[in-house]
Amino acid sequence: MSTTTPPHTRATLGTQRVMQSVLLATVPGILVLTHFFGFGTMVNIAWGSLVALACEALALRLRRRPIAVHLRDCSALVTAFLLCIALPPYSPWWLIAIGIACAILLAKHLYGGLGHNPFNPAMVGYVIVLISFPVQMTSWAPPRGLGEMSGLLAALQACFAPAHFDGITMATPLDVLRQNDSLLIADLWQQNPQFGRWAGVGWEWVNLAFLAGGVWLLYLRIFTWHAPVAMLASLGLLAALFYDGGSSASGGSPLFHLLSGATMFGAFFIVTDPVTSAVSNRGRLIYGALIGVLVYVIRVRGDYPDAVAFAVLIMNFAAPFIDAYTQPRTYGHSSRRRDD
Amino acid sequence: MKAVFNFHGGIHPPQNKHRSVRTPIADAGIPPEFILPLSQHIGAPAIPVVRIGDRVLKGQRVAEAGGDISAPVHAPSSGTISAIEDRVIAHPSGLRAPCIVIAADGLDEWIEHSGIPDYRELDSASLIRVIRNAGIAGMGGAGFPTSVKLSVDPPALITTLIINGAECEPYITCDDMLMRERARQIIAGTNILRHILSPGKALIGVEDNKPEALAALRAAAEGSAIEVIDFPAKYPSGGERQLIELLTGRQVPAGQLPAQIGVVCVNVGSAAAVFNAVALGRPLISRVATVTGDAVRDPQNFEVLIGTSFRYLLEKAGYQAQGCDRVIMGGSMMGFAVADLAVPVVKTTNCLLAPAASELPVPPLAQACIRCGLCAQACPASLLPQQLFWFAQGREFRKLEQHHLFDCIECGACAYVCPSSIPLVQYYRASKSQILQLRDDHARADASRLRFESRNQRLQRDALEKSAKRAARKLAVEQRARSDGGDGMAGDPIQAAVERARARKAALHSAFGADGELASREHAVASARKRLEIASTKLDEATIQGSDRVEALQAGVTNTRAKLRAAEQSLDDYRQAKHAVSPDPAVVDTIEQAVHQPGAARATAQSPQYKTRAELEKLQQRLQQSQASLSRCRANGEQEKVIIALEATVSRLQEKIDAITQQLQAMQDN
Question: In the prediction, which pLDDT does B597 show?
């Protein structure tokens, strides 16, 4: 008779399925991004995925790990998708390659591979290219209706022959708001075509699409609601507190912040990364809430137009600390302390 | 129905219970052979009271409890004891353990037995004795002797009696069927337990996925003070500590028994067994067990005699061996695969699960932990399984203990939810046994260090005493010399002794005249014998105290014995010489006697029995000494380590004495 160890039955949710679900949940957001900003993001993702798989295979080979087994867990693809969604559409191929290589090799495998990285790999890659190549990283295409839409060929050209691509760029709504110091919010809205019904044209729909994907993941119980809801709540609360009735010094309305930039994408796809976040539910509430605070502070007071990457990386530092102070009380013990 | 509480975590694995509850409990019948492991419970193994070849009757005791925490074993049917030997038992590692094997004669002839007509006339202690003699041990799976659970001191502490009918483990339905079909027995058993413990309230907890069982229990409990409580199904609600929290809202303090918070928790199967033991006088010789899984044609529950082999029972349910590569004892969460189908059903065997290959697939290779935290959310003990896993991999035993590894109940909820299919429970089990091993090693090292230190102290003390004595003697001699005045000879003690000896010899000579020579030789023999006696006594004492002078003393004894022999020889020679001169038969007789008597005595002294008995006496002496010093240390409130070391010595001596007593017994039998 063969002997196996208990439990003999296991829940069906495996790591591979978790990763595949996350990939699938990004699809609505990618489609809406493509609708409003053209094929740039899709080209980013296609090229980025190839580089990511190559880097992962290289790292696994160097570390003498079975390549096929680990490639199949799809974690490299998730990193590629998340980073390429965050990068501006029509980024040149080398920028994407550098970002992905930094994410997979530096942020992930140098720390010991999947599960061992203290920082979110996609965000590390993003911040490295953001600081290194600020010009490329701050040029977003104009949304549909406000400029000429590039086709698939132009997108491929932008990526692989950037010298011959002459794309138009436009300041994002978050940029516009940050640079405003004279107009009332209502006037700003009227004078800039980038603003739509609640936030930026296109951006509001992009955010709603990522929200939908996130809600689907919540429904699948891929992650718990604690971190994303805490982040959105603290961001919305701070925005409401400092809305200032829409004066020229206003930081923008809560709705504007919730539906701008990478808010929803960050809340449901970045903050929820289990490896780099706090572990307990209470810990995730604190972790998410503090990310929301940092996002608002950096958006309104900082030098960078969007802040999710920095906020997440800073809180990655704090996650072990939060974990140490949010341990549950073991059954039958009177205190939460575990150091005696 | 009253409000119930909740416990942290828990999971909802597929239950797979429906298939084995379609038919009533069937009788598994009498197998050709019973294998009765001596250890079917937690605690000391039982001790056989039968011999190979004995005929035993159904219900006859074949092994008695081997200690306070132990349980006797009874013959499940009539037959002949065919072997008492090691057999493979139901154990994850395919362990072999001592078993009594009975060849059944098929007559199923009961031993004379009778129940107690009215248990209310007996006091708690007598009822607990009945339960103990019936060999009842926790039938939920843990096998803790029920009588020990009930022996709460003082019993007034118990406020709540909980009867555990939760049966949260997937596949298992034996408690469910028992509650459906024998609810009255369970209620009657509960009433007996209430009489023993007199708790404020008695609760029966059942998961709400067993409506028939709940209805049957409620009908049977109608009019009694027993409350039947249902609660939402969630694994592991049937864990003792989880059930207590569910029903009372209180947690059992870590490392303590439920009695600490006034709760005693007993399985429904054990409650029914208590009824059988008290009201019918039947010991625990059968139980209800589920046989299920896709590899059996008719999944159902059986009333099966303890000791029946798995193969026999599986075949009763239509076992199909092809496509089934393992049989699990227990459910799919905590059960373990057995190594061999010859293993017997024991008191804790609640389920045999024979899955088809596709039913419970072997999990994929473990992947890296992604710290998803699902395990921490599932853990019913509120542990941090991912942290424990981390520490277990790094063999950080201190950290593991700080993170309460020993509060893990090994329910497997963490491993069940783990998306990376990491065998977490195995890591915890291995770490637990490694830590226990380390603790044991430490205790041993501490004890031997203590022994060494105390020996050194004793040697130092002895040396000091000796030098003090020597100084005192010297002082006394000097003083005497001074008081004797100018006599220079008296100042030298050796010279004085030589003088004394010479004087004694001269006195002997003058007293006995010509026969003085004989007398002096006899005196030499007598004094040599006396010296030998003294030396032997000293040697014995030294051996008892474990002194390092043993070897020196041994040499002394040998030496003295040689001298004795020489003295005897010279006495002999002299006598023979004298005999040649004057052959006085009376004298010869006495001489012969004198020469041979000690020799005969020595011959007896050197017989193995005598030696063993002497050794036994010595050991008993040592034991007494050790016990005395142990109680002295206890009274003086010595360090715990010292006491532990002494206790170890006492138990070691006890073991030796037992072994020697047995040896002696064997000699006498021969």
Answer: 57
Asked if A7 lies within 8 A of B341 by C-beta distance, the reply is: no
Asked whether B622 and B546 are in contact (CB, 8 A), the reply is no
C-alpha distances out from residue A298 to A78, B404, B449, B471, Å:
26, 41, 64, 90
Q: Are strands B96-104 and B61-64 parallel, antiparallel or unpaired?
A: unpaired
ipTM of the modeled complex: 0.85
Q: Residue A335: is its pLDDT beyond 60?
A: yes
Grouping H, G, I as helix, E, B as strand and the rest as coil, residue B93 is coil
Distance from CA of B290 to the nearest CA of A (A): 17
Say yes or no: B412 contacts chain A, CB-CB below 8 A: yes
CA-wise closest residue to B446 among B644, B294, B206: B644
8 A C-beta contact, residue A74 and residue A239: no
Contacts of residue B407 in chain A, CB cutoff 8 Å?
Answer: 330-333
Nearest chain A CA: its distance from B388 CA (Å): 12
Is the four-CA dihedral A64, A68, A70, A75 of positive or negative sign?
positive
Parallel/antiparallel/unpaired status of strands B226-231 and B201-207:
parallel
Question: Would you call B408 an interface residue with chain A, using a CB distance cutoff of 8 Å?
Answer: no
Q: Is the pLDDT of residue B1 over 50?
A: no
Would you place residue B592 in the very low, low, confident or very high pLDDT band (cuts 50, 70, 90)?
low
What residues pair up with B137 in beta bridges, in sequence order?
A: B145
In this predicted model, what pLDDT tens digit does every residue of A272-284 receive, in sequence order? 999 999 988 899 9
The token pair that represents B195 in the structure block? 């009489």
A219 touches chain B (CB under 8 A): no
Contacts of A139 (CB under 8 A, 6+ apart): A88, A167, A169
Chain A 14-43, residues with CB within 8 Å of chain B CB atoms: 14-15, 17-18
* Partner A, chain B 349-388, Cβ-Cβ below 8 Å: 353, 355, 360, 362-365, 367-373, 376-377, 380-384, 386
Residues of B in contact with A334 (CB under 8 A): 253
| A163 CB-near residues (< 8 Å, 6+ apart) | none
Cβ atoms of residues A89 and A40 within 8 Å: yes
A330 CB within 8 Å of a chain B CB: yes
Backbone φ and ψ of A195, nearest 5°: -85, 140
Q: Is B595 exposed, middle or buried (0-12, 13-18, 19+ CB in 10 A)?
A: middle
Three-state DSSP state, B355: coil
Return the ∠ at Cα B568 (arms to B562 and B573), rounded to 5°.
Answer: 125
Q: Which of B7, B333, B337 sits opposite A4 (nearest CB)?
A: B337
Residue numbers in B near A73 (CB within 8 A)? 367
Cβ neighbours of A196 (radius 10 Å): 17
| Cα B247 from Cα B268, distance rounded (Å) | 16
